[in-house]
Design goal:
With about 170 residues, this protein is of the alpha+beta class. The protein contains three helices and eight strands.
């Protein structure tokens, strides 16, 4: 479902602005409207973070930019608590914006994307605090190259089967 929303967002909003959408997450807001936090790159290779409002008129899906910032202006991403499974995080620009992602996994996916875009386009010292860096760094065991979770699942199953085999082996007397 999210890939369909991403494709629709990219086609109806970002392509018309001359941008490429890299990642989006749904964030909780009051009211019945849906909001997405998006990371995109302009033709001038500037990385933008955009708050997009999603609404319907009849059967037509519509998107409207509510607010936007540049990644270059982002001072810090604060994941609140690295040791708990929570969807809350703050982004520090000149003002601090607090968000509640749809899930903890989506919070990490967005932070991972911003970190990757920073490495690709800015190479600035982006502070990422209160996240478990095992899941943030692109070169970590838990991440896969194309966002494909199949490799991660395969590695986990491999280690679990090894542990099971070791636990069933008889101990030497």
């Amino acid at each position: 479902m999210s890939s369909l929303v991403k494709e629709d967002l990219n086609k109806k909003l970002f392509k018309s602005l001359g941008q490429s959408l890299y990642e989006f997450i749904e964030v909780e807001c009051s009211g019945k409207d849906r909001f997405y936090l998006c990371a995109s790159v302009t033709k001038g290779e500037e990385v933008q973070i955009t708050m997009v409002k999603h609404f319907r008129i009849g059967l037509d899906e519509n998107y409207e930019i509510s607010e936007k910032w540049f990644l270059d202006d982002l001072e810090m991403i604060d994941g609140k608590e690295a040791d708990t499974d929570n969807p809350w995080f703050d982004m520090h620009f000149k003002k601090v914006y607090s968000w509640e992602a749809y899930s903890c996994a989506s919070k990490y996916a967005f932070a991972r994307t911003l970190n990757k875009l920073n490495e690709m386009y800015l190479q600035k010292d982006l502070k990422i605090v209160n996240f478990d860096f095992t899941y943030i760094n692109d070169d970590s065991f838990w991440s896969s190259n194309n966002g494909d979770d199949c490799l991660v699942l395969m590695r986990i199953c491999f280690y679990a089967s090894n542990l099971l085999c070791l636990s069933l082996c008889p101990l030497p007397v």
